[in-house]
């Protein structure tokens, strides 16, 4: 087989070009710190990197979701701390108001104080998150969940479903309870009324029972009237105790979730670290190997240049030119 002068020239040119390309590629890896820059560099590693990149993005999204969840749960916990204090204050006032030696004016004074607690609880029940969204309104967070109707009773107008947030691949948790769950519910083991009937579930109605009773004069009345007034305060005491236990139950749930969110964050951070290590192994350059390759490719390129130069000096090429 004969090799023409032009074929030999083309082969030498391709050799120089290939050597130059390999040298530039090694230089690019060193400058970028990436071994896999294009999918063609390592198709298998590139494919795995795409999947891993998606997992990293998902992990970051869950991290952000947990941040929002932590803020929501912490805010609700703070509001319920104040609600707990308000209910405990109301309990103390009801006990003091039960003193049979009090005058009607004293009883009226306690009724006024309980109205203040009621107003405080209503304000807490209509708390917002600082962005105008009502905490206890469920998914109807654009309007106040609790309003006062024409008769003066507090009614719930918020959503029926609590707000939930997916905080990890297989974990969804409640980040904001509805007002009905907090202020208009009692636990399954709540204290019943003496006749066996269920206790009042609406904490505002419970307070109204005591407020209305304390506003009724009992001085210079018969024992039956006094007994009715006392029973109203006893009913309020039971109702406030049940409502407080329900609020504490919600607080306990929130506290458990805050602890879980911290653990999920820790797991997410560990997962992120492992993903970064894995991604580095897939696409990042090994500088020791890359420097060695760069040096070798540089030497190969120089050898190609020399070979091409020497061959160009041959008489055959000179004559051809």
From TrEMBL:
Which NCBIfam families does this chain map to? flagell_flgL
- Per UniProt, what is the name of the gene that codes for the protein in this document? flgL
Which domain of life does the protein's organism represent?
Bacteria
Pfam families membership: Flagellin_N
What is the protein's major site of localization? other
Q: Which intervals hold domain Flagellin N-terminal? A: 4-140
Q: Where in the cell is it found?
A: Bacterial flagellum; Secreted
This entry carries the following GO cellular component terms, namely: bacterial-type flagellum hook; extracellular region
Q: Which InterPro entries match?
A: Flagell_FlgL, Flagellin, Flagellin_N
* A GO BP entry: bacterial-type flagellum-dependent cell motility
Identify this protein by name: Flagellar hook-filament junction protein FlgL
């Amino acid at each position: 087989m004969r090799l023409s002068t032009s074929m030999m020239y083309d082969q030498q040119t391709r050799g120089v070009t290939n050597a130059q390309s390999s040298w530039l590629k090694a230089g690019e890896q060193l400058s970028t710190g990436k071994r896999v820059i294009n999918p063609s560099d390592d198709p298998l590693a590139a494919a795995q990197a795409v999947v891993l990149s998606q997992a990293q993005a998902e992990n970051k999204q869950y991290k952000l979701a947990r941040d929002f969840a932590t803020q929501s749960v912490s805010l609700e916990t703070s509001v319920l701390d104040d609600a707990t204090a308000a209910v405990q204050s109301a309990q103390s006032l009801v006990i003091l108001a039960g003193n049979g030696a009090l005058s009607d004016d004293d009883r009226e004074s306690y009724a006024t104080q309980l109205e203040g607690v009621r107003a405080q609880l209503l304000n807490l029940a209509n708390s917002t998150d600082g962005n105008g969204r009502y905490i206890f309104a469920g998914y109807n967070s654009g309007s106040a969940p609790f309003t006062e109707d024409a008769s003066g009773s507090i009614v719930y107008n918020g959503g029926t479903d609590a707000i939930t947030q997916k905080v990890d691949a297989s974990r969804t948790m409640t980040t904001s309870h509805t007002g009905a769950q907090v202020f208009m519910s009692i636990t399954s083991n709540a204290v019943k009324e003496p006749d066996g009937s269920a206790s009042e579930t609406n904490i505002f109605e419970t307070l109204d029972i005591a407020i209305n009773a304390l506003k009724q004069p009992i001085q210079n009345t018969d024992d039956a009237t006094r007994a009715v007034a006392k029973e109203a305060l006893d009913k309020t005491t039971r109702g406030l105790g049940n409502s407080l236990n329900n609020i504490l139950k919600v607080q306990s749930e929130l506290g458990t979730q805050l602890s879980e969110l911290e653990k999920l964050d820790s797991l997410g951070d560990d997962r992120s670290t492992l993903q970064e290590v894995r991604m580095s192994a897939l696409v990042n350059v090994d500088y020791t190997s890359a420097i060695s390759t760069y040096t070798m490719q540089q030497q190969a390129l120089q050898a190609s240049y020399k070979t091409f130069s020497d061959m160009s000096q041959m008489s055959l090429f000179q004559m051809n030119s």
